[in-house]
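Team,

Forwarding the record for the chain on the shared tracking sheet. I've put the sequence and predicted structure together so nobody has to dig through attachments.
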Amino acid sequence: MEDPSVSPSRKCFECCKSAELVCHGCKGKPNRNGNPTAIYYCSAICQKKDWNSHKPSCKASKDRQALYRAGKVAQGLHCTFRRNTWSWAIANVEREKGEVLGEIWKIFDGKHPETGYFFPFPKNLFPDIKDQEAILSYGSCREAIAFMEVLVPDLLEGRWSEIQEVSVRVKDPRLRIARWEDLVPLIPDVHDVLRIVLPNAEILALDLTAAQYGWHESSVMPWDKFMEQRVKEVYRVREFRETTRLLRAEAVAAGSPYIRLHRMWLEYMMISFSYHLIEWQGENI
């Protein structure tokens, strides 16, 4: 029988008595909504009795935490890669805030340097860290998907059952970045994310470039929540790694040494980051 004087958050998961012991296997790890988990027991006896029932959800929370952590680190690494391979000459930025459409940035192209392909990121135009994340993410969805080809399988080894590349059209973004080229606004229409299915059949979205739309929350969120809050329609679904194959084919077809250089540098960074992330995984997951 439940004791009404005991706080629901501190009730034994087995017998509903007042509890102080906590399952350390899933303590602080995200639940299905992304919030920290805490399962309490009044004694080791009750914890042992409940183990067969609790074991699947405990393991799922560990898989979920691995993905949330991987997403956070991969997002930071992707921004670092973009910053170090910056090749967009920006002359000016005009910011407008609308009541209906949210914030709008008008980006005006500048003159590309005559020497070199990569040059310093224009931090003076984007002093705020969230603004930097937004512009570094702009138009890089496909690159981010390719970036995750090596990172995700290695970092989440044994913690996923299926991965798909999903292209969507977003709805209600907080930020719209418009690149004004020849006085014509160019706004990305299609956004690419990964749809990851965990071993317990739970589905999550991994989105490294959400900041370009003003979404600065976790790069990982439940798939149904992602679809409800951010997606107007699903445009296309591809097998995992298909985007990387397409990018390589485009680089070969273009024949530009700069594009080839960029792709080679991307592959180098993917392998390098994967190596360091696997080391990090062993220490933190």
